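I am still getting used to backbone structure tokens and would like to learn alongside you. To get us started, please write out a protein record for me. Start from the sequence, derive the backbone structure tokens from it, and show both lines together. Once you have written the record down, we can walk along the chain together:
***
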Amino acid sequence: MVARNVGFAVAFSLMAATARAQDPAAQAMPNPQAMQMQVQRIAQERPREAEAAARAFLHVISQQRGHGPVEPNLTVLESLKAHDPEAYWREVAQLTVQFDVVQNLARRDSMRAGLVTQMFGLELMGRTLQRAYRGASESQRDAIRSQLEKVISAHFDFENQLRILEIKDIERRLADVRAETARRVEKRAEFVKWTVDDIIRDATRPQ
């Protein structure tokens, strides 16, 4: 089920990359196992506040470039609620958890939050197309597959933009570490003297 799992797959690659970089945005991103557990819990418990959060996130997604008005997505959600409650709550749970991720990330890095919102919006498109594919005729499936390829291609591009940001962060931190290392090498004698002075003071301090 590619479209259903794409959120977890992308979340894993995104968060693994962010965690490796050890930038402040990593603190806003839960691990993929935590996300999956949250989604499962919400889908099982079906809290009413999750429905409001999911709809709020649909409005946020609709404000992103290329995602169109919110009404079609709300219509799809209402249709799921009427005809397939389990699928409805899986979708609500997914949107709720993703909304929480975006809100936490936005507090630290608005640029990354925007990219992640775009990615989550594309994942929503992917899940919608997946459901359409199941009930489509053979002639319709080719068109849906073509749409899915465009969605995944755009998703890939946004993920690469996140990786470029990660590379820039790593390069900046590497430059800082190199500068600090060069400073310590240059001031080696002073650092040694200061450290020895501290040791002596501690040794002669009254007990």
User: Anything to note?
Assistant: The helical segments are 2-21, 32-45, 48-62, 71-83, 85-106, 110-134, 138-186, 188-204. The chain has a mean pLDDT of 86.
